[in-house]
Amino acid sequence: GSKKDTKKIAILTPYLSSVTTNQMVELLKKESKTKGWEANVVDTKGDVGQLVSRMEDVIATNVDAIVLVSTDPNQVKAQIQAAKEKNIPVFGCDSGYIEGMAMNATSDNKAMSKMITEHLFKQLGNKPINLVVLTHRPHPGVLKRTLEFDELRKKNPNVKKVIEQQVNVPGPIENSRKQMENLLLANKAEGSITAVWAGWDEPAIGATQAIQAAGRKDIIVTGIDGNSQAVNLIKQGSPLVATVKQNFSGMAEIVTKQIELVFQGEQITEKEQYAPASLITKENAGK
Amino acid sequence: MLQVRDLDKRFGLHYALSKISLDIHSGEIHALVGENGAGKSTLIKILTGIYQPNGGKVFWNNQETVIREPKTARKIGIQVVHQDRQLIASFSGYENLFLGISYPKQKLGLGIRWGAMKKEADQLKSKLGIQLDLRKLAEHMSPSEKTMLEIMRAAMLDCQLLILDEPTAALSDEESELLFELINKLVAKGTAILYVSHRMNEILRLSDRVTVMRNGKIAGTFSTKEMSKDTLVQLMTNQTSSIKKQMQKTSFSNKENVLQLKQVTSKDQKVKNVSLDVKQGEIVGIFGLAGSGRTELLETIYGTRHLKTGQMEIQGKIVSSFSPKHSLARGVILIPEDRRGDGLIVDMSIRENMTLSTLSEFSSIYNIKNQKEKTAVRTWMERLQVKATSSEQPIKELSGGNQQKVVFAKALLSKPILYLCDEPTQAVDVMTREEIHQLLKDQVSHDSGVLFVSSDVQEVLDISDRIYVIHEGEIVAEFENEAVTAEQILQVCYNQRKQSDV
Amino acid sequence: MNRNLATTYSSSLLRLFRVYGTLFAGVLIILCFSILRPDSFATLDNVINISRQISFLVMIALGATLVMAVGEFDLSIGAMASLGGVMAAKLAVSGQPMWLCILLPLAISLVIGYINGWIVTKFKVLSFITTLGMGTILGGITFWLTDGATIFENIPESFRYLGQEMWFTIPILSFIMLFLTILFWYIMSYTPFGRRLYAIGGNEAASRNAGISVAINKNLAFALCAVLATLTGILMASRLGSAQPTSGDGLFLPAYAAAFLGMTSFKEGVPNIWGTFVGAAIIGILANGLTMLEVPPFLQDVVTGSIVIAAVILQKIGRDSS
Amino acid sequence: MNRNLATTYSSSLLRLFRVYGTLFAGVLIILCFSILRPDSFATLDNVINISRQISFLVMIALGATLVMAVGEFDLSIGAMASLGGVMAAKLAVSGQPMWLCILLPLAISLVIGYINGWIVTKFKVLSFITTLGMGTILGGITFWLTDGATIFENIPESFRYLGQEMWFTIPILSFIMLFLTILFWYIMSYTPFGRRLYAIGGNEAASRNAGISVAINKNLAFALCAVLATLTGILMASRLGSAQPTSGDGLFLPAYAAAFLGMTSFKEGVPNIWGTFVGAAIIGILANGLTMLEVPPFLQDVVTGSIVIAAVILQKIGRDSS
Ligand SMILES: Nc1ncnc2c1ncn2[C@@H]1O[C@H](COP(=O)(O)OP(=O)(O)OP(=O)(O)O)[C@@H](O)[C@H]1O
Ligand SMILES: Nc1ncnc2c1ncn2[C@@H]1O[C@H](COP(=O)(O)OP(=O)(O)OP(=O)(O)O)[C@@H](O)[C@H]1O
Ligand SMILES: [Mg+2]
Ligand SMILES: [Mg+2]
């Protein structure tokens, strides 16, 4: 740590342009301000290699704490060790926990995926299910969700067909919309597609727009994240029926509180702390 | 040594060469002449492996040989200086010399021995008596320097047949003499020379035998001794030449100035303190040795080179804005020296090139009047006898001389009052050359003026009413073209050089 | 002679191939998909669908084509499109009238594009590096305007009109795309301005000597390119009803792919408008058809890449014999 | 004369500027950062830090420079790097010895690069479109190998050696980078092979007419470029201890930015090895310094873009007068 009075924390993420990550970072910044810390945000635009370099840079400037937002800590293992050697605590926010970090606050990706998938299957009932999966596996969080979903859908005997599509990033809404348009035209018969499972909210929004434009009433969509555009669509009664709202403010609050504890010289015992996620449906949307 | 039998070459449906047969003996200088587009360069490109023939055979030292790529040609001993310069712009003279041949390498390892390379090159340079700064990058060399460099390159390797495609087109007389000496040296060693040129004097003086090409066919091979300029021209065109040269002297003292320069100096000092004038109806020649700044002078007038001090008047009006665009608006046009680099857009068609500087005449802001454009282009193609399949043919497919004609047609289309001609007849066949001269004379009779630069003293004397001699960017003499001879003009140049050497 | 006739025939066929090869490849792709998915691919609905899907790519690639015609590159088109969408959306949210939401960003991008050109022509800097730098700057500005978040709240319904409505069952987007393609084809082929752009791209020195104001015309090409990119971004935001700060970035590479594919068609080796259109169409049709065939994601990439390469090779077949 | 002396002096200063302008700009940037952050930027630790950070960019940009030297482009380098990392990591996980984990991917990429070149030279297809297609194909293969997921489980410790260890307190990565830079500088400047590559890039027709085997040399340039990209990917995976299926993609644009920045240095207008090195260093130093200055993200972009443009403009100052 440094000898200066104001504590400095560095917030690092590769995904600042994602709505949810952005939300968390904003919250962290706000919380830090109220505590009187100086927060510096570093974004590497999806580039993990860059993230490693930037993390080294902030370690070299002797910040007092580092927060990794939406990052797989396995990729910065060496840097976490380097930070530890310089006594700079590394916190995770929606990231993951590995040896050497102070802690991580997260809403469990696996749990969220389970929550939304079970909800989706409940909605679809006992009819044959034909699924479109919109995902982006290179993203570690989305990957975890997709893998959990894969497990669950294999166990469901009603699932007849699964079409997986990779959504391009940047530009996920436009891209998923196009893909959905094409799939809808290729599957015109009623019931040939019954649901869309999206790995996060942006493709869910794109798919919803495509379904609305095509005037199809027989398809429901789910997302994950609970970004406000998605919540809006759920409220309106669109094909987007549900998403899981991650408790981002909860995560940011947990991290802030833990940072404060560390600054006061205390030890953290709970390494993985969860801010529980909540299911958003038409009933509770916008409340 | 080299025998060519029934060679055919087709481009699309058009036969550029048909049934060409030719023999070249070792130790002879064999000239190849023909109109622009007769197929000389194409034949050479086949002999050096750039094009593949569509039919026919080539025998090299009595063995049938297929020259599949340029490498093969070099390996069997055919060296060439092409009509279009073949240099790497970003390479120095040294590096260009060693292009494509094995560099002197270090004993161990792969490195190049620059020192050895320089020594070898410098030795060759002094052996050939060429004066050239080989450290210069090719892109900074003038056209004549580039030619000398290419000639050196051809002489680098032992060659049995040296092909020269219009080597003197960009050379001054002095440099040409150097080249002739070199040729004679090589011939003495048993090398055969295939020599392409439009300069009949050179052909008559240099060659042992001459082959005349006409329209992609051989019109005959003759011993040069039996030939005269007129018969050659007649063979090339298949008709008796009708153009008669005559110089009628007019007095220009009462005419108005088209161009007047007062102590003009360019920003880069390549042009220094030049004062000159061109009167209506007058053709003014500019002569100087290579690198004397003739090109720079014309460029300064045209506005591509920045002017530092001095004053320029066009038709009595002081000029204050300098750029090609302004010059064109004033009626001043430039026929540039480097037609591929500065004159033509080689990927575009003849039509598009011809009307480029006068586009506004053929168009409103929102469209181009196709019919009008095509008619004009066709008219000029006929007047200048541009040899092409149609006005839509891309420039890059034209022979060198025909490209030059397009440059000229473009200039004529803008109906200028002042022509700045930088080597306008280089690479142009004898007939066209006369035509161009005649054209310029016709133009000046309509009260425009011409500033005419050529490396050929005789040409300057043939066409000019008045001659300025330029040396290191300065005007050093002025002659009325009455009793002056080529020797007198050259004398001035050489004297100047001696002085500045001291 | 018989032999000659045959040669003539086959050589003119080859010529056709050389000029229209990529177009043929496109037709072949369409045929394949039509046979494999007659009920969904080869339908009027899908044609309309594709026409809308390729509209963004076509528009932004038209701009790239203009800049390529003068022998330069503009790598800032993706960032420009993103910024355009964001500006328009912000203006719409702040309650400005629609015409202003569209015209103001276009005007701003005109200036930005002109600056791109000005730096390139004034300082003789490579356009590659200039526009890469400008793209980075624009990305920063977009980020600053949005805080990195997507703009979607309070966007008025009218903002979605152009992107989502139809005229006579055909999307307005498709009309705009066709209109712009024809317009720029006309400009490039039949106006002195277009001729000048091609001349500059062909030989800058010769064009200057022919009295063409090289700098101004180049600057204009950059300016038009930026305007087209911005328009693309605005329409994209209108279509999605939201503006993402990186929405246009993904268009950059496909746009150049389309333009380069186009260079192999119609006018060989020369960037040209209809070529670009065909290039964009091929890319769009491939994405559409492969999705419909439900080809697994990784195979889609492999197939797309292979077909693009095959399409350009196809067109070179028989080149040597000509 | 005095005046002449002054002119000579100032003109040689301008010449220096023209040749080393970008280098000066780099030094200027370093000075600024050193003054603003003497305690963290201007430290030996940070120099070492930067040298490691730029190593990937330098290596991949060296390959781009080779291909640019022959007048072509390779847009598949990003995808090639990603694939390289993934291949190496998969091999390591499957328990292969280290040398195989490195050499096998390099050998494969050599072939892929050669194919790139072969398509370009054999069919006279634009390299832009060929390598764009190849990049797409490689992306698909990477995806197929990984299912889109990051590989990090069961990677043996030895795999991290090259990417994470030091020799004499200097990262091995920095040594590799320096070694490769010097090696390729030597090759390009002092071997016939290097001269041939430059000759081809300078004037392809003239080189062919001078007897150089254009196709083979070009193919080799593509092959070397692919090998360098793959090596970059492997080392990156070693450094991260994991291989992401898109890890190399982000290097593509910066690599060309570095190479183009480099073209403005040393040998004007010609891609050259040290120029590329300086270009990559400038990009790396800017990222490092701006992070240390805690410049907000959007401003970082604006500043980076502006400085890159300024650096190339700076170097053109006084061009007219020379
Ligand atoms: N690449 C090409 N494609 C099509 N036609 C060509 C090509 N190269 C040459 N030609 C045509 O072949 C004919 C012969 O051209 P060539 O260059 O051999 O003439 P030349 O005798 O060298 O003329 P010049 O004296 O003007 O240089 C011309 O009609 C020319 O238009
Ligand atoms: N781009 C350039 N960069 C540097 N030096 C140049 C450049 N162009 C020409 N020069 C030099 O300027 C001088 C004048 O050249 P230039 O060839 O234009 O004169 P010229 O009188 O027209 O002679 P030439 O018969 O060679 O055309 C020569 O020494 C030449 O080497
Ligand atoms: Mg010729
Ligand atoms: Mg000259």
UniProtKB/TrEMBL annotation, chain B:
Location, primary (coarse class): membrane
Pfam families noted in UniProt: ABC_tran
Protein's membrane topology: Peripheral membrane protein
Name of the protein in its database record: Autoinducer 2 import ATP-binding protein LsrA
Family according to the record: Belongs to the ABC transporter superfamily. AI-2 autoinducer porter (TC 3.A.1.2.8) family.
PROSITE patterns: ABC_TRANSPORTER_1 (PS00211), ABC_TRANSPORTER_2 (PS50893)
Catalytic activity: ATP + H2O + (2R,4S)-2-methyl-2,3,3,4-tetrahydroxytetrahydrofuran-[AI-2-binding protein]Side 1 = ADP + phosphate + (2R,4S)-2-methyl-2,3,3,4-tetrahydroxytetrahydrofuranSide 2 + [AI-2-binding protein]Side 1
Keyword ATP-binding: yes
From TrEMBL, chains C, D:
Keyword Cell inner membrane in record: yes
InterPro entries hit by this protein: ABC_transp_permease
Keyword terms, alphabetized: Cell inner membrane, Cell membrane, Membrane, Transmembrane, Transmembrane helix, Transport
Membrane topology summary: Multi-pass membrane protein
Listed GO MF terms: transmembrane transporter activity
Lineage, highest ranks first: Bacteria, Bacillati, Bacillota, Bacilli, Bacillales
Keyword Membrane: yes
One CC-aspect GO term: plasma membrane
Segments traversing the membrane: 17-36, 56-77, 97-118, 125-146, 166-187, 220-238, 250-266, 273-292
Record-linked Pfam families: BPD_transp_2 (PF02653)
Protein name: ABC transporter permease
Compartmental location: Cell membrane
